[in-house]
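queue> pop job 88
queue> type: inverse folding (structure -> sequence)
queue> payload:
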C-alpha cells in the first residue's frame, strides 16, 4: 500500500528538516492493525525529537508525531476482525504524521462516538500525562497546593480542570496575561502573571509555608523558582523542557531539599502493563465523555500536505488551541 509520511532524516529545525516521503507500508505482523489517519495535533513533544532531544535513541529516518485518531482498515491474522471500521487512537506504534499508521492492536484505544475527531486526536499526550502526574506521580490530595509553570500551554488548562475534579488548589504561572482569566475559569485557584513583578512574592501570598507539589515543563530559572517555593521535602515533577535549559537536579535536592522526579509517558508505558495502560486511559475518556474534562477546540486545521504552513502557525505566540493536521 502506498503511504505518504512526514519524516526527518537528520536532526534540526522542524521547518527545515521535515519533508514528505512516499513509500510502501510493510505487511502487518499477526498482532498489528493498520489505521487510516483522520487528524493529528502538533505538540511540543512532537518537535523535540526532531530537534535532537532524544538523538541517542532515535533511528533515522523517522516519522514524526505521537498523537492522533484514525479508522482501522486492516488487521493481522491474530487480531479480531471486529476492529475493522472502528475509530481508534493508534498510539505507541509508528509516528502518527502519516496517512497510514501501524501499531499493535493491544495498544490501540477504541473511542466512543460521543467524542469528536478533533477532541479524540488530542487525547493521548496531554490529557493522559496530566492525569497520571496528578493521580500517580504526585498523588495529590484535596486542598493541597500545587504550583506549575508553562501556563500558556494547552496542558495547563487540563491541569486546571483536574484540580477542580480532585479538589486540590492549583497556582499557575504564565507569561501570557490573557490566559489568566481562562485558567481560573477552568479551575485554577490562582493564576500569576510571571512576566512582571516579584513572582516569588506572588506565589507566597496565601501560602507562605510553601506549596506541597510543583509541576515543571520549562526548566532553567523557572524550574528553580518552583523548587524554591516548595515545602521542605516537597515533590517536584518535571515533564518538559520548553526553555531548553535542563534543571540542576543536584541543586534542587541539596539546596532546596525537594524530591525531584522525571515524568515521561514513554517511560510510564514501559513500566506498566497493557491492562494498566488501558485502564488509566479509560479514566481519561470517561472524564471527557462526562464533560468534566474539556478538550480545547483547535486553533486551526491544515491539510497534511500543508505541514509547513501549519508549523509556521504553531510557532506564533498566544495560540488558543492546537494546530491540527488533517488526513481525510
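queue> result:
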Amino acid at each position: 500500500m502506498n503511504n505518504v509520511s512526514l519524516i526527518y532524516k537528520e536532526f534540526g529545525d522542524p521547518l527545515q528538516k521535515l519533508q514528505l516521503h512516499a513509500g510502501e507500508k510493510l505487511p502487518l505482523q499477526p498482532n498489528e492493525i493498520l489505521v487510516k489517519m483522520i487528524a493529528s495535533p502538533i505538540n511540543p513533544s512532537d518537535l523535540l525529537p526532531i530537534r535532537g532531544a532524544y538523538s541517542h535513541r532515535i533511528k533515522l529516518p523517522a516519522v514524526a508525531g505521537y498523537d492522533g485518531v484514525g479508522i482501522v482498515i486492516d488487521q493481522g491474522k491474530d487480531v479480531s476482525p471486529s476492529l475493522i471500521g472502528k475509530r481508534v487512537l493508534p498510539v505507541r506504534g509508528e509516528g502518527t504524521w502519516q496517512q497510514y499508521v501501524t501499531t499493535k492492536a493491544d495498544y490501540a484505544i477504541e473511542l466512543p462516538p460521543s467524542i469528536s475527531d478533533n477532541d479524540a486526536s488530542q487525547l493521548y499526550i496531554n490529557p493522559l500525562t496530566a492525569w497520571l502526574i496528578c493521580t500517580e506521580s504526585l498523588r495529590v490530595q484535596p486542598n493541597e497546593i500545587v504550583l506549575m509553570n508553562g501556563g500558556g500551554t494547552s496542558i495547563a488548562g487540563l491541569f486546571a480542570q483536574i484540580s477542580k475534579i480532585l479538589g486540590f488548589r492549583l497556582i499557575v504561572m504564565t507569561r501570557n496575561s490573557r490566559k489568566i482569566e481562562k485558567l481560573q475559569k477552568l479551575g485554577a485557584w490562582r493564576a500569576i502573571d510571571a512576566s512582571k513583578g516579584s513572582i516569588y512574592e506572588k506565589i507566597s501570598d496565601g501560602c507562605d509555608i510553601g506549596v506541597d507539589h510543583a509541576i515543571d515543563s520549562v526548566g532553567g530559572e523557572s524550574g528553580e523558582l518552583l523548587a524554591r517555593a516548595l515545602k521542605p521535602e516537597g515533590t517536584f515533577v518535571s515533564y518538559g523542557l520548553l526553555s531548553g535549559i535542563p534543571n540542576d537536579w543536584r541543586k534542587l535536592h541539596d539546596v532546596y531539599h525537594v524530591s525531584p522526579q522525571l515524568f515521561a509517558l514513554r517511560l510510564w508505558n514501559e513500566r506498566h502493563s497493557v491492562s494498566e495502560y488501558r485502564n488509566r486511559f479509560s479514566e481519561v475518556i470517561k472524564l471527557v465523555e462526562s464533560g468534566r474534562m474539556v478538550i480545547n477546540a483547535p486553533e486551526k486545521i491544515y491539510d497534511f500536505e500543508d505541514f509547513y504552513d501549519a508549523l509556521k502557525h504553531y510557532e506564533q505566540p498566544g495560540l488558543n488551541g492546537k494546530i491540527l493536521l488533517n488526513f481525510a
